[in-house]
Design brief:
Layout (H helix, E strand, L loop, with lengths): L10 E12 L2 E13 L4 E5 L6 H8 L7 E6 L2 E2 L5 H8 L2 E4 L3 H4 L6 H11 L5 H14 L16 H14 L4 E5 L7 H18 L2 E6 L3 H6 L2 E6 L2 E7 H6 L4 H8 L39 H5 L5 E2 L5 E2 L10 H6 L9
Parallel strand pairs: 3-8, 3-9, 6-7, 7-8
Antiparallel strand pairs: 1-2, 1-4, 4-5, 9-10, 10-12, 11-12
Helix pairs in contact: 4-5, 4-6, 5-6, 6-7
The structure holds adenosine-5'-triphosphate.
The site of adenosine-5'-triphosphate has 14 residues, from strand 1, strand 2 and helix 1.
Length: 338
């Protein structure tokens, strides 16, 4: 798939950093990350737990204010917009969460759940709201009669359809989906992925999909951004990143993802856990776990440099772990003390 993005992004993060004060220290959750969302396209944000995916998404949704950088919506800087001016814009960006059971209020009927954003934004009278609720229910493949029932009366997949209907109700332009299928049975996952695809096409939506591994990303995204300890280590068109990862961390993530066409793929087992985001390593953030790290990686920080059209990688030795075979022959260095 070639990437030809001429239009202005509907939403963008520009050099965003988010830090939290913890105890006496500072935790850097997101470090100088830029990302652009375009209508009709999906960006997948990938990384281990704690890599900063949700924090970045929250900053883009303006649920938090970044410490540095800018958030743009339709070209407008909304980074420091006060809530009263942000509120009318909020209907344009909606979220779908991992666990539809936890994210849907169990005391509300499905009708109320879906109508809630419409009411909150004053989008129509009772009759118009009812009509819209029926419309989005139909769009997600649920009967109009669902409005009278409660979320608990539905299966996991149906509940995720309800969450999607709720996100769609106010006709947003951006949907952030945080692990939208990982809580669902494998048999249901494909249905929800294809539903999200159909809805994206019919509504021309921009998606940001958060995922901790690359398995889902393959089917759902045009572009992938790989985060490690709050930094982008690699980004590019999904098909290219997945077939030829340039960063050893991406290669490691991919090696953990079984693919039917490459069952022989060797696993790169990364030694140790990610370092604490409070005490981030000097040099390359990944060097303490990197199987190909050299001395320079511990002292100098690689910048995110172009690695082909629409691709970028932050590594002094990009491409060294590009294929399963190379991975297998590369010794995995055990870090002392880990
Ligand atoms: N409100 C907060 N206060 C302090 N630290 C926080 C806060 N929110 C997030 N963090 C920290 O920021 C880092 C990034 O967390 P974040 O939730 O963004 O990662 P993630 O990649 O989304 O992980 P997961 O896949 O587990 O959701 C973590 O170290 C986390 O502990």
């Amino acid at each position: 798939m070639t990437e030809r993005i001429g239009s202005e992004p509907v939403m963008a993060a520009e050099r965003v950093s988010v830090r939290f004060a913890v105890g006496r220290g500072t935790l850097t959750a997101v470090d100088d990350v830029s990302l652009a969302l375009h209508r009709g396209r999906t960006v997948a944000l990938v990384g281990e737990s704690g890599s900063g995916k949700s924090t970045l998404a929250m900053a883009m949704m303006r649920a938090t204010v970044p410490n540095e950088g800018r958030i743009l919506f339709q070209g407008r800087d909304i980074t420091h917009l006060p809530e009263r001016r942000l509120k009318p814009l909020r209907r344009h960006f909606q979220m779908v969460f991992q666990d539809p059971y936890a994210s849907l209020d169990p005391r509300m009927t499905v009708g109320r759940v879906i109508a809630e954003p419409l009411r909150a934004h004053g989008l129509g009278n009772r009759q118009a709201i009812r009509a819209r609720v029926t419309e989005v229910l139909d769009q997600v493949g649920l009967p109009a009669s669902a409005v009278h029932r409660y979320p608990a009366q539905f299966s996991g997949g149906q509940r995720q359809r309800i969450s999607i209907a709720r996100a769609l109700a106010a006709r947003p332009s951006v949907i952030v989906a945080d692990e939208p299928v990982s809580a669902l049975d494998v048999s249901i996952q494909a249905q929800i992925v294809s539903l999200l695809g159909e809805i994206q096409a019919s509504e021309n939506l921009a998606y940001l999909v958060i995922a901790h591994d690359l398995a889902l990303v393959h089917h759902i995204s045009d572009r992938v951004v790989v985060l490690y300890l709050g930094r982008v280590v690699e980004e590019g068109p999904t098909t290219e990143v997945v077939s030829q990862p340039q960063h050893p961390y991406t290669a490691a993530l991919l090696s953990a993802t079984p693919t039917p066409d490459d069952p022989q793929r060797e696993r790169i087992v990364l030694s140790g856990d990610p370092p604490s985001p409070i005490q981030r390593p000097a040099g390359c953030v990944f060097h303490t776990r990197c199987p190909i790290a050299r001395p320079v990686c511990a002292t100098d920080t690689p910048t995110l440099d172009p690695a082909g059209p629409n691709r970028a990688v932050a590594c002094f030795f990009p491409g060294e772990l590009a294929s399963g075979l190379t991975i297998a022959s590369a010794p995995v260095r055990q870090k002392e003390g880990s």
